[in-house]
Amino acid sequence: MADSPIHSLVLGAGVGGLSMALLLAKAGRRVTVLERQAEIGGRLARFHRQGIPFDTGLHFTSSLVGILGQMLAVLGAEEDVVAESFPWSLRLPDGHELAFPNRGRGAFYDYLAREFPREQDALRKYQSLETEVLRRTPMFDLRVGMEDPMTAFSELDQLPLGMLLRRLGMSPELSCALASTALYHGGLPAEVPAARHFRVSYGFEEEMIRLRHGGEALVRNFRRELERLGVEIRTSTRVVAFQSLDARGQCHHAALSDGTDMAFDDLFSSLHPAEIVPLLPPENRRGFQRLTANLPDTCGFFTIFATVDAQCRTRPHLASYLRDLDFNKIINPSGPKEAFLSTGCVFSQETRLDGTPVQSLILLAPAPAPPAVTRPSREEKDAMAQVVLAHFYEALPEMRGKVQVIASATPHTYARFIPPGRGAYGVRMRVGNPRLMGRLPVRNFYGIGENAFTPGVVGTMLSSFLVARQVLEEEAYLRLLPERAFPDHEFLTNWSC
Ligand SMILES: Cc1cc2nc3c(=O)[nH]c(=O)nc-3n(C[C@H](O)[C@H](O)[C@H](O)COP(=O)(O)OP(=O)(O)OC[C@H]3O[C@@H](n4cnc5c(N)ncnc54)[C@H](O)[C@@H]3O)c2cc1C
């Protein structure tokens, strides 16, 4: 009788869990995905209000050329995924407006050199350090071997971004411009390793894009591939308890919320680590608790979902308005006074369910995440919306009277995806954080998802690829990579400095 395939259990059907499920299934494993919600997709999913689609957690991302395009092609999820260039700008508190060129990293740095002519030397040094980290990072070409000495993690994984900017003697304004992409990973410049910041920010320096129809095409493609490969997806189901660990420190049984038990060989969790701890038998909790007890979380976002009158023509873009230069405060507001020090405005063209076009506007303002704040009352929520709108009109007075607010969300609203008390980007990346990616204290459990490596859709997918490579082993992993996934080799090896 043939051996039965390894059975892998994947927790969470967001982009992290779905990418992992596809990689394991493509490698010949039997895979089951458990998803607490009734639908798959997690924060990739869109929602509709008054027939208008709005994004939850994929407003923009970095270029499809390169690692994101590679990953989608390997997963068989690239069909109908259309990237639209998405210009982005930043207005500093003194009114200095930076409109980034969105035409490659070289153009990004040339532009900053023109805007900050007296700081060209520091800027070039920063750029070359970034280049060095990218060259050494084993993740920008899925084929590059982990054993290659050039791919070792960098010393800048130990140096906070803020310290690097100070060492380079940069002005607060230029530091602010370079640190601004921290808004897209939630790490504080004072804590986030410079290399981690580079690995997220390079993509936006290269090109910021928006996927046409947000994450919809991705979810559709993931679903089709999962079905084709026979992956079992159990929605509205979660683990309620794991059975005790065996003598090898492994766990192979879980009790599920639908009253059934599930046996598995290994488990891949895209959940926040704090969600796993209470599921473990008390005698086995200590390892996990020690590992995760002191991990701080990122902030949340107060979000306004709106439309802009058709007579007022807007072009799709991201504009961020800052009221302070200190990203440590902006990203980690300690209380109401520090809330909303920046407003990100995502303008886009969408299609209503009835087929008519509409200009949508999403305002995102960092706000303290629960439990630092309690659930606001309706009046408090309205008052927060008024503050965010006032900041928006202060920055763009010509929009007054042209915006219709459809809905708003406090950090509590995101509890559907994010466990209570946790931030928009999960665990905050800091120098010295324990490694959550890969094997966890239960020997056959693996951490994946945004908490394990780097937040954002690209970083979350990458964590699944890196863990799959570790678990499946090199030969089986390389067999998953079709030639067609690598059309742009030049781009990957030729980091312009
Ligand atoms: C407001 C906001 C804006 C963002 N904007 C962007 C952006 O523009 N670009 C970008 O790249 N990133 C953005 N992000 C971050 C990005 O959405 C995340 O990094 C990424 O989607 C995380 O994917 P994931 O699979 O780890 O988590 P999720 O997508 O949250 O998936 C986790 C899944 O697990 C399920 N789950 C939770 N608990 C359980 C349980 N106990 N059992 C079973 N299932 C469970 C959840 O329901 C969910 O479906 C944003 C995030 C937020 C909150």
Helix content: 25-40%
Biggest pleated-sheet summary: 7 strands, mixed
Overall, the morphology is globular
CATH fold descriptor of the largest domain: FAD/NAD(P)-binding domain
The neighbouring-strand order within the major sheet is: 8-7-16-17-18-15-19
The radius of gyration is 22 Å
Total beta strands: 21
Query: Which regions contain 5 or more consecutive residues with pLDDT less than 50?
Result: 491-497
Q: In CATH, what is the homologous superfamily of the largest domain? A: FAD/NAD(P)-binding domain
Structural class comes to: alpha+beta
Structural write-up:
- The protein is an alpha+beta fold and 497 residues long.
- The protein has three domains: 7-44 and 68-79 and 213-295 and 429-493, FAD/NAD(P)-binding domain; 98-209, no CATH class; 299-424.
- Helix content is 31%, strand content 20%.
- The strands form five sheets. It has a seven-stranded mixed β-sheet with strand order 8-7-16-17-18-15-19, with helices on one face. The protein has a six-stranded mixed β-sheet with strand order 10-2-1-14-21-20, with helices on one face. A three-stranded antiparallel β-sheet has the order 5-9-6.
- Helix 1 runs parallel beside helix 8, helix 1 (15-26) packs parallel to helix 13 (457-472) and helix 3 runs antiparallel to helix 4 (120-136).
- The radius of gyration is 22 Å and the shape is globular.
- The model is unreliable at 491-497 (pLDDT under 50).
Can you give me a brief rundown of this structure?
The chain has 497 residues and is α+β, with helices and mostly antiparallel strands. It has 15 helices and 21 strands.
